[in-house]
Amino acid sequence: MGRKWNNIKDKKAEKDKNTSRIYAKFGREIYVAAKSGEPDPEANQALKVVLERAKTYSVPKHIIEKAIEKAKGGAEESYDELRYEGFGPNGSMLIVDTLTNNVNRTASEVRAAFGKNGGNMGVSGSVAYMFDATAVFGVEGKTADEVLELLMEADIDVRDVLEEEEIVIVYAEPDQYHAVQEAFKGVGITEFTVAELTMLPQNEVTLDEESKAQFEKLVDVLEDLEDVQQVYHNVDLGE
Signal sequence span per UniProt (predicted)? Predict the structure, then answer.
């Protein structure tokens, strides 16, 4: 799973280059999570997960507070969570998660992004079966053996624990996200290099340079769309 973590890390680094874009997307996601239940993360697990992710992207406090206050204020903006699946060049697969207040606009923009950049949309289920929903945490200051022992003592089963470049990566079932987080916090670990609920490919593909460039353009265009929150894929981007 090491290569998959590198892809997550690379994607995070790329998003960090455009902070206004990532902050806007988190603002929308925080608002939707806060509106779905109590605007208090201790009483709203969905909101708590989003806020933990926001911390790893260094989303400023005022962005978070503004989104939560907007939800508290009874704003009536309504967003639909929609997932699109599609194919890029040479066997590449993509999952595109969106939050939208205009389904027709979003569908049209996503379809156009695929069509103009060497890809094509698939039907629901055509790609997702090749990915696994996964909780991923990255922590520093511990060895893989120490983290594994910690999780075992907390009676938490995980898929894998790996150590890469002084960062320990934990892969767990999505429903274990909160349990893993609390196990870390129980030993004083409250900062994570990554804390994500993500979709990891079961297998990765390697593209030639031309196809890789085309694929990266496709991902960039998709991620630039206002309604797109996450793009997952099965391409090994390498170093």
Answer: none
